[in-house]
Amino acid sequence: MLRSRYIQCSRVFLRTYATATSPHALVFLEHRQGVIDSGSLSALTAAGQLGGKVSALVVGGSEHVPGVVEQAKNIQSPSPEALSPLLEKLLSDSSPFTHVVSATSSAAKSLLPRVAAKLDVPAVSDIISLEHDAANNSTTFTRPIYAGNAIATVRAPPSVPIKFFTVRSTAFSAALLQDGAEAETQAVDPVDVPDCPSKHLKTNITKSDRPDLGVASRVVSGGRALKNAETFAATLYPLADVLGAAVGASRAAVDAGYADNSLQVGQTGKVVAPELYMALGISGAIQHLAGMKDSKLIVAVNKASTTNSPFNLALSTRTITLIRISQDPDAPIFQVADVGLVGDLYEVVPQLIEKLKQ
């Protein structure tokens, strides 16, 4: 049995329109050990751009919900099969909600399309912008397609009563927490789901002292050129530590067992847009570029087959160069890199670490 509460934020997001009913978005908020997921904060920002009320849905076990509402701690992760009847109930015919919003997370990818299909309405995924027309209750979204090589414009017309969409977190700033903001808390009756076909057993979280990959301002990524897991760790981790950066990996490195799949950057991994992205030994396959090409500064270091030419690294206290290191000087990653360096990563990285420590 699941219990839930939703929080209605009326002070920050409330606007009224004289010509049409104001939109009312329901945001599926995900929490982990008392900390709101950064992607959910971006989803709140996107929901606020609709120009109406924003309510947040917090879901957990019956023994955890009170603590979740107050401190967002010890949240339990129900399966989509168990959670969808609850969300479907909230969005019944008498529902005030016009939009359902979530971050583009694994949970949302399973939950929102399931509920949208039950309600016979479409769902738009991974949006990067939106515009709501309050006059006729239509919403226009843009979303990347073909691994980010094209942008599709999708319009949800007034005939769609509830508009489901997920948000790419890198496209929206995180919602700011404001002291003293008022929010009404309402309890929702639990929904009993007998004979649920799946059950959540446990959640394994990779713990690290480094910044979270999805929100880090600096990222150091490695590819298949790093040979094995030991070389991957010995080469990337010291550089990441001195930069205060998160560690990422290409799909090839993850598939080869060099890094955990939670570190994968790309179309089938995490989409990041840090201030600094360093790609070491990454050729730049299209699925990897889709996950990092929006980074503010991208530098590529690539090793030619025969070269012993020296290289220069310009460092200052205010500017850090983004470097990509690959085995092919004509690799596709140079097409998106702001700075490219032809060199051996096993020579470049130790010298870079030494200069950063000075």
UniProtKB/TrEMBL annotation:
It is found in: Mitochondrion matrix. Keywords: Electron transport, FAD, Flavoprotein, Mitochondrion, Transport. The electron transfer flavoprotein serves as a specific electron acceptor for several dehydrogenases, including five acyl-CoA dehydrogenases, glutaryl-CoA and sarcosine dehydrogenase. It transfers the electrons to the main mitochondrial respiratory chain via ETF-ubiquinone oxidoreductase (ETF dehydrogenase). Belongs to the ETF alpha-subunit/FixB family. One of its GO terms (molecular function) is flavin adenine dinucleotide binding. Gene3D superfamilies: HUPs, TPP-binding domain. InterPro entries: DHS-like_NAD/FAD-binding_dom, ETF_a/b_N, ETF_a/FixB, ETF_alpha_N, ETF_asu_C, ETF_asu_C_CS, Rossmann-like_a/b/a_fold. FAD binds at residues 224, 250-251, 264-268, 281-288, 302. Its main location: mitochondrion. PANTHER family: ELECTRON TRANSFER FLAVOPROTEIN ALPHA, ELECTRON TRANSFER FLAVOPROTEIN SUBUNIT ALPHA, MITOCHONDRIAL. Its cofactor is FAD. One of its GO terms (biological process) is fatty acid beta-oxidation using acyl-CoA dehydrogenase. Binds 1 FAD per dimer. Residues 25-200 form the Electron transfer flavoprotein alpha/beta-subunit N-terminal domain. GO terms for cellular component: mitochondrial matrix. This is Probable electron transfer flavoprotein subunit alpha. Heterodimer of an alpha and a beta subunit.
